[in-house]
Specification:
This protein has 217 residues and is mostly beta strands. It contains one helix and 14 strands, in the order αββββββββββββββ. The relative contact order is 0.27.
């Protein structure tokens, strides 16, 4: 018989059960009080910072994140990268947007401003870069090919389908025993609804690194 009051539930109804010990599946159900009425709710309806994508071994000429991940449920995303690098030395990291699940990339003005600081010689340099109207440049051409010379940091993406796409990023990498910091912004002049994105090195292929993507409501 369904319970009509929360007070009728003994705490042992929860504490006496086997622990899940894992993140609930989206179809797992919870018990909530909706203005005093007990109801069940799928975990998928719980608003949260949801980790949508995780790749622990990034390889290939591009890391494609498709339409099953980039959905209309979110307009903002936070991407975390760790030691993401190419097998080609002196590469940069780029970002592309797609409206057809990465079959092609938006061929619209992509304007990127990257400001970098190099602790090796105290150098500071900036780049305003558009790569074939396709790729938003996220670092300068200084990502190394050594084991610990990949990019680390975050990229904040705003890709509402009805507005221009833009974002901010802060990434670092080491090279020749010194650290380089890359800060910047990007802008894609298109109102088309994005349903996929891709990361790619300017040269060679990814051969190391991890990427996680969180959808933000």
């Amino acid at each position: 018989m369904a319970l009509s009051k929360i007070g009728l539930i003994d705490p042992t109804a929860i504490t006496g059960e086997t622990a899940l010990a894992a993140t609930p599946a989206l179809t797992d159900e919870l018990l909530v009080s909706d203005a005093g009425t007990l109801k069940r709710i799928d975990f998928t309806h719980i608003p949260s910072h949801v980790k949508l994508f995780s790749d622990t071994s990034v390889t290939g000429t591009a890391l494609n994140i498709g339409s099953t991940i980039i959905t209309s449920s979110f307009t903002r995303y936070l991407m975390i990268v760790q030691n993401l690098k190419s097998d080609s030395d002196n590469s940069s990291l780029g970002l592309r947007h797609s409206v057809d699940n990465n079959s092609s990339s938006i061929n619209s003005l992509s304007d990127t401003y990257v400001h970098s600081n190099d602790t090796g010689d105290g150098g500071s340099f900036s780049t305003i870069d558009v790569t074939n109207n396709l790729t938003c440049k996220l670092t300068d051409d200084i990502i190394g090919s050594g084991n610990n010379e990949g990019a680390n940091g975050f990229i904040y993406l705003y890709i509402d389908g009805t507005k221009p796409k833009h974002g901010t990023f802060k990434l670092t990498n080491t090279n020749s025993n010194h650290v380089i910091m890359h800060n910047g912004v990007y802008y894609v002049d298109s109102n088309d609804a994005v349903n996929a994105i891709s990361l790619r090195p300017s040269g060679g292929s990814f051969d190391q690194g991890t990427v996680e993507l969180y959808g933000l409501r």
